[in-house]
């Protein structure tokens, strides 16, 4: 397929959604800076004509951009290194004690992107089931590093429509004594409704998404894993 993924309608429900992020959602929700590359990736992932192989390829690209920006929210400390020529360089390094947690199943699509950026990082998992009619979410499985209470946690979940799944997942993390301010949600697409719900529930948690839009591409997990 062409990189554009198909014709784009001149107008309709998926026209650009305008908002003031800081005023409406507070300082802890950040949207990936939108340039032509990011917008193209979002367009391809929303296009119903995109093949699964192309979908996965471009999804991995967007995941990598979001993960890298999410990692930029983690704490750094100053360090000094010696270059091969003997020069002294004043730089930065990640502070120790970071881990990832993916919300199964769609969150697992983001694990490789995190591993590509952080070699040997430990990754836990949360499985949340939602009622098809009420959308009420409940956690049925959770596995974390034993010392997760003392770590910064990158929580991975690509699509937020209502925010219920993320709210339940963060609640479980807090039950394991993870501080709310030590959690960073790494997300690809969120509706404004979901973003407001999560920000209201956990105002100290950082959220990084690539787009806020009233229509979320809920086909993401099925398309990515080939189960549609």
Automatic annotation (TrEMBL):
One of its GO terms (molecular function) is GTP binding. Residues 35-212 form the Phosphoribosyltransferase domain. Keywords: Cytoplasm, GTP-binding, Nucleotide-binding, Nucleus. It is found in: Cytoplasm; Nucleus. The keyword Membrane does not apply. InterPro entries: PRTase-like, PRTase_dom. It comes from the Eukaryota. GO terms for cellular component: cytoplasm; nucleus. The keyword Transferase does not apply. SUPFAM superfamilies: PRTase-like (SSF53271). It holds the Pfam family UPRTase. CDD domains: PRTases_typeI. Belongs to the UPRTase family. This is Uracil phosphoribosyltransferase homolog. It comes from Ranatra chinensis.
